Structures are given as C-alpha cells and as structure tokens.
Amino acid sequence: MAQQLEFFEIPSPCRGICQADDRGYCRGCMRSRDERFNWIKLSDPQKRDVLRLCRQRWLRQQRNDKSDPSNQPEQPSLF
C-alpha cells in the first residue's frame, strides 16, 4: 500500500485551557504532561498516535460523565 505524503506540519491540539484532571491529562487537549512537553520533538507518526490516544481519552471521559449521576446537573426546583 502506498504511503500518503505529508506536506503540512501536524498542529498542536492545545486549546489554551491547560489544567490537569485527576489522571494527569490536560482538560483541554487530553494530552499527558510528557506528550505536551515533548510535542515539538515528536515525529509526525508519533503526533498522529498521540492525537489518536487523545481522542480515545476524550471518548472515555464522555462515557464516564454520562454514566456518573454526580456529574449530571441537578434540575432546579420549581417551588
């Protein structure tokens, strides 16, 4: 299978939130501390792998938020 040529640099997924959650992943981009600090040094295949991992972490977080009733906003009382 022929490889596709990459003409453009893969941009950082940083969203400027830069706060770590309880597992150590950034709340904005879902990267670990090492992934954030070493982004510039990573090759394009490594960056794509990090982006794939970030997507998996984000999906896992969304599933956990839906299944955890304490994360659901309470409906305000009408009375």
Q: Which sheet architecture does the biggest sheet show?
A: none
| Head-to-tail CA distance between termini | 66 Å
Total beta-strand segments:
0
SS field, number of helical segments: 2
Order of helices and strands: HH
The helicity comes to 25-40%
Global outline: elongated
* Multimerization status: single chain
Question: How would you characterize the overall build of this protein?
Answer:
It is a single chain. The protein has two helices and no strands. It is elongated and about 65 Å long. The mean pLDDT is 87. It has helices spanning 33-37, 44-67. It starts with 32 loop residues before the first helix and ends in a 12-residue tail after the last helix. With 79 residues, the chain is an all-alpha fold. It has a domain at 18-67. Helices cover 37% and strands 0% of the residues.
Give a nutshell description of this structure:
By secondary structure, the protein is mostly helical.
List the helices and strands and how they pair.
Elements: H1 33-37, H2 44-67
Protein name: Fe-S protein
Pfam family, one: DUF1289
What structural keywords apply?
single chain, about 80 residues, mainly alpha, about 35% helix, about 0% strand
